[in-house]
Amino acid sequence: MGKCVLVLIVIFGLAACSGGYAPVAERSINSKTSNSNSRPLPESGSYRVRKGDTLYSIAWRYSLDYRALARLNNIDSRYLIYVGQTLRLQSVQPTVTKTSPVGASLPLVVTPLGGSGSAYASDSAGSGAPQVGSTGSNTASVPDKPRAPATLVRAPAKPQVVPAQKLTWRWPAEGPLLNGFSSTATKGINIAGKAGDPVIAAGPGRVVYAGDGLRGYGILVIINHNQEFLSAYAHNSRVFVKENDMVNGGDKIAEVGSSGAARDMLHFEIRRDGQPVDPLRYLPKR
């Protein structure tokens, strides 16, 4: 009888110890987590750059405008950042852009593939690596340069404004709508689908992020459409584009999946000047 009691105590003790969760560092691309969307600013008011980050992905993480973030940290228009670099976040204010009616002509920001100014991750920032420089009197003081050896983080090439053209939005997936927009929860919409269903670009632009570095989004693609709008496509199973690729509206950029989600679906967001807006205001009715 005593042995049975001892065995039961051991079993219950083991069960109690197994209730924890794996640390963030051990999560996999296919981990089933809910979409955490944007995070509150850290108490320190700063962020330490990690490998795989881009200025766009950091701004997206905290619902900031990437241009304001660059100005605050005296980062020029090449948007180069380095692993280990500390970026200030707290003083970032949204960039106010003149409101244009939905569907109005907007300048499209594009960068030719292979254009000068693009930079990708390397083991060290050698003498030939571009350096972050001053952009004028409207920027903050120059941050300390990273100590060698430093790793250059992938950064998009300098955008070029081409003649304005009409930005026409389209649905990024064909499935039914699972839930609508919430400014405090999802900050986007969820569209049902099956694994492998095509995910298309909602409009023309340049891919500024493709990866799984933003927790809660799984495998994510972010497209810069023009000086106001960016869009994001989350929980993909496969991605067919890379950073700095130019895409047209309707191009297949990924396939539906469940990375970072509990089911197969597409999570879609639109950001205007860094702030989440309801995609249903811009997508055509169906």
Short description:
GO terms for molecular function: metalloendopeptidase activity. With 286 residues, the protein is an alpha+beta fold.
Look at the structure and give the CATH class of the domain at 177-281. Answer: Mainly Beta
Query: Which structural class do the helices and strands define?
Result: alpha+beta
Distance between the termini: 69 Å
Strand content: 15-25%
Tell me, what's the shape?
globular
- Report the total helices: 3
Average pLDDT for all residues: 73
Biased composition (Low complexity): 120-129
Pfam families: LysM, Peptidase_M23
GO molecular function, one term: metalloendopeptidase activity
Domain LysM: 45-89
Structural commentary:
The protein is α+β, with helices and mostly antiparallel strands and 286 residues long. Among the domains are: 43 residues, Roll (Membrane-bound Lytic Murein Transglycosylase D, Chain A), CATH 3.10.350.10; 105 residues, Glucose Permease (Domain IIA) (Distorted Sandwich), CATH 2.70.70.10. It contains three helices and 16 strands. The strands form four sheets. Strands 7, 8, 9, 10, 11, 12, 13, 14, 15 and 16 form a ten-stranded antiparallel beta sheet that branches. A hairpin with a 2-residue loop joins β15 and β16. The radius of gyration is 21 Å and the shape is globular. About 34% of the residues have low confidence.
